[in-house]
């Protein structure tokens, strides 16, 4: 692209009034979107934007907020997102630095309804998340996981074994690991979570050296949802340890590792559906689900699941 005639009219309309587009350079492409660095002259000033607000109000140094967004005129089933341009470089964030950022977010944010969810549909890749408000974390998590299992099978094909495993998993493991967070005098506060925090979604501003987080799938959820740990990710055990040192561990503390394992199942299954070369993760998810069922064969004594798989 090298002229404003090549930008969709909806994007041109979102740029500063009276500005002249100087250059449009491809930048930051992904499988799900196209990114461009757009330079605009306004009088004697030159402004640069990246084309591709909840987090920003809490982490203004680490989030690039949307200046404009909307639907493309030339392609109504596509949308755009316009923000200030940051020249970013990939680098693994120091565990203590990430812990400080996450602690700030999780101690200053709160759900506007007091419930778990989010006001709008968000997306992980192109997968929509049902963020309907729920009174309990167990209900919200189970509902999203159920829909993600169905979505992955719509992409990779039906799996009768997965459905049988999920029946037992939803009846036993989810109530056992999540209901104790909000029973017997315990409570958790819904806080704003990034929702897709891995090393690929954190890069450093070359000028300020501040870490910038992007591609979020925000939700007001349990604080530990931000701890995404898998062997292929560079945010690992040291980052988890630094975070829990800062903010602590929800009770029951002894369930912490298994809760993280539970939370990561959702991400692994979505990745299996999004990327053909990671489709094998479905089998890993099933193995993990079976291991948790084996660990908690009785589930939670006397408890019926809030949401059944079938």
From TrEMBL:
Keywords: Kinase, Transferase. InterPro entries: Fructo-/Ketosamine-3-kinase, Kinase-like_dom_sf. It catalyses: N(6)-D-ribulosyl-L-lysyl-[protein] + ATP = N(6)-(3-O-phospho-D-ribulosyl)-L-lysyl-[protein] + ADP + H(+). It comes from the Eukaryota. Its EC number is 2.7.1.172. Pfam families: Fructosamin_kin. Coiled coil: none annotated. This is protein-ribulosamine 3-kinase.
């Amino acid at each position: 692209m090298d002229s404003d005639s090549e930008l969709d009219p909806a994007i041109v309309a979102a740029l500063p009034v009276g500005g002249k587009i100087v250059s449009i350079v491809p930048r930051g492409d992904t499988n799900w979107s196209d990114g461009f660095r757009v330079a605009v002259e306004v009088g004697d000033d030159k402004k640069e934007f990246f084309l591709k607000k909840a987090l920003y109000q809490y982490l203004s140094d680490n989030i690039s907020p949307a200046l404009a967004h909307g639907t493309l005129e030339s392609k109504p089933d596509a949308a755009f997102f316009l923000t200030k341009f940051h020249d970013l470089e990939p680098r693994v964030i120091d565990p203590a630095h990430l812990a400080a950022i996450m602690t700030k977010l999780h101690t200053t944010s709160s759900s506007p309804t007091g419930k778990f969810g989010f006001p709008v549909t968000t997306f992980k890749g192109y997968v929509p998340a049902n963020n309907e408000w729920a009174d309990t974390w167990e209900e919200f998590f189970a509902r999203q996981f159920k829909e993600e299992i169905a979505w992955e099978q719509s992409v990779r094909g039906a799996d009768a074994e997965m459905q049988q495993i999920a029946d037992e998993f939803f009846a036993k493991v989810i109530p056992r690991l999540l209901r104790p967070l909000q029973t017997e005098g315990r409570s958790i506060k819904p806080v704003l979570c990034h929702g897709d925090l891995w090393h690929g979604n954190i890069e450093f501003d070359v000028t300020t050296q501040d870490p910038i987080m992007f591609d979020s799938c925000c939700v007001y959820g349990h604080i530990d949802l931000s701890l995404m740990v898998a062997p292929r990710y560079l945010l690992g055990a040291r980052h988890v340890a630094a975070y829990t040192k800062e903010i602590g561990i929800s009770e029951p503390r002894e369930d912490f590792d298994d809760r993280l394992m539970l939370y990561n199942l959702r991400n692994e299954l979505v990745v299996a559906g999004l990327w053909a070369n990671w489709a094998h993760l479905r089998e890993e998810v099933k193995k993990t689900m079976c291991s948790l069922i084996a660990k908690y064969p009785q589930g939670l004594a006397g408890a019926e699941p809030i949401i059944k798989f079938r």
